[in-house]
């Protein structure tokens, strides 16, 4: 965790430096471009004025030609028009200087911009240095080359879509990966129950309790046996929803309370009294009362998660899909695995890694991701596995299968913990 | 010098105590007047030649108001009390609250749900402004509305006659206090002296028990024949 935050802060530091440089360049460029624009405007104005002067002189010449006066005047006019048609040397010099200054500034901006490329590319290098892009050492790619395993993965993904109510997507996936009809049927059958729960969960968040109340009524006895809060919580929320509709629906709210609260009277005596007192605040509005927290969305979101938890618990199904559990556990494990990558490589133990079912280090997952107890054989001091399962002896002690065989002499086994001698074949495999 | 012998001196002192009839009569009259037993007080006044004391003048009014509360005519009782004691409910918020609560309970008893809700929501009822330490009483009262047969609900005790009796007693005490404030007299306590005396007797008996003294005649309030028990206690062995 420390190395991760260190990596993030390191990249962030470089990024901050580059961003501040870009901001500085932006400010300077803005000022320079402003100046250049001003000079160009002035230049255009000067040239425009000169052009106007030339046009005026030409018009004057034409007018003179129509004059019936003598030749002397006409001769005098013919001499003048030639000179004003050309810019003066000073004007030409002024234009040339302005263009030179603009060119110089644009050149400078271009150079400064090019200099930043180096800094920007450093960000990429910092990311490469602090974050690993190569996960191959933590993966077993060969696993997915097995047809059966690939099918299992597709099946897990399809189940995940079913849970979200996206049956169409699941069907498309099943068709494209050519899943067999038996497996396809299993996908829909096993996730049907959760899809129903999920649908109700979504509706609760949208403040629709119809299906949830129906479900709770159906399983009322089981919920009561488990001391679940959810049935009362649903009725409470529906009641407050009716009260929040205002004075016009208070009769309906009273009827709802009389119909549904009776069975909860003893256990929720105080809660019911508190709910009923909400009517007192209706004229001035619940939003100005101690009950305003019932109007917010948080109350509905909280209720939906309580429902999800209690419903999955009662039906004996997992709250999260297998795919999401695996992905979350993997994300938790990845940093720890990357940290030991160097050690693995330097000690030439990559081959060992790929060959066994154990991880090389212990990884601390959150309690919600621990589904089974871990049993370590007290004789061999290693965790049991599919290949080496735990065995319970007739005396009740448990050791691993390999240890059982090592300690046996023919068919006779003496328990390492107690004096009981027994037939080694009578030991039974156990599951935690 | 005589040796102190507590185990024998206490019974002796009890038997030696001279209880005058006039004192007993005053105790009884005080109880009857304070608790509003008008007819009994009048007859006792005649038969025993005992003066009734300062609260006799208000006994009729207090009796009418308490009777109204006991039969559930709470609004009538409140109106009557306000006419006789204009500042009663200004100086005693708790009694005012309980009377309003009782009005609500009577509407619920009469199955008048709309009327009950309207009353509970009104500013005049004052439920939304109740002292937080009493809000749970408002909640329990409103809880009655959640049941078709509220007398069988967890809050059903509010529907019992004993609750009316309790509130009537509170009203009586409040009226006596109000009267006391007006007359500026400090002589008459709010509670009947007899009640105080009985509590004192019970306290003393408990203390004697703790000290290990058992050789005296106890006043047994649980005795079936209360009159005989009382007479025996006050007359000694």
From TrEMBL, chain A:
InterPro entries: CRA_dom, CTLH/CRA, CTLH_C, Fyv10_fam, LisH, ZF_RING_GID. It holds the Pfam family CTLH. Its main location: cytoplasm. One of its GO terms (cellular component) is cytoplasm. Coiled coil: none annotated. GO terms for molecular function: ubiquitin protein ligase activity; zinc ion binding. GO terms for biological process: positive regulation of proteasomal ubiquitin-dependent protein catabolic process; proteasome-mediated ubiquitin-dependent protein catabolic process. Residues 193-250 form the CTLH domain. It comes from the Eukaryota. A zinc finger (RING-Gid-type) spans 377-418. Residues 377-418 form the RING-Gid-type domain. Keywords: Cytoplasm, Metal-binding, Zinc, Zinc-finger. It is found in: Cytoplasm. PROSITE patterns: CTLH, LISH, ZF_RING_GID. This is GH10162p.
UniProtKB/TrEMBL annotation, chain B:
Residues 58-115 form the CTLH domain. InterPro entries: CRA_dom, CTLH/CRA, CTLH_C, LisH, Ubq-SigPath_Reg. One of its GO terms (cellular component) is nucleus. One of its GO terms (biological process) is proteasome-mediated ubiquitin-dependent protein catabolic process. This is RH01588p. The gene is Dmel\CG18467. It comes from Drosophila melanogaster.
